[in-house]
Amino acid sequence: MDECIFCKIIKGEIPSKKLYEDDKVIAFHDINPEAPIHFLVVPKEHIESVNALNEENSDIIAHIFKVINKLVKEEKIADSGYRIINNCGRDGGQTVNHIHFHVLGGKTLPMKLT
Ligand code: 5GP
Ligand code: ZN
User: Fold this and answer.
1) Which of 11, 19, 60, 111 sits a CA distance of 20 to 30 A from 41?
2) PANTHER family in the record, alphabetically (predicted)?
């Protein structure tokens, strides 16, 4: 997708602070962190959101969670805990229409939404 920010990061057209990359996914620090540790795990395939998952493309979700399992250990938040967030659509607060998982940790995260 030509205008997609995350596709541009994947292609290296926009710089990012990369934590991990393989042939299927990339993980990088969020530009506007909401916690001491806040990174995003993003499939290289442009899938808009959970709404666009299907039999053909959904194996990537298991792979993303395996990558998260590895990265939280490397970032030393596996034991203290962390939150994985996926925002979908307008009411979910999705601002980049390329599916991604936020991983936040390094402090006790508030639970209330308002
Ligand atoms: P969403 O609101 O769609 O769930 O999350 C999008 C996230 O992408 C936001 O937390 C935002 O800070 C982050 N973001 C947007 N543009 C960029 C960028 O160019 N670089 C990085 N590293 N993060 C970005
Ligand atoms: Zn994209």
Assistant:
1) 111
2) HISTIDINE TRIAD HIT PROTEIN (PTHR23089)
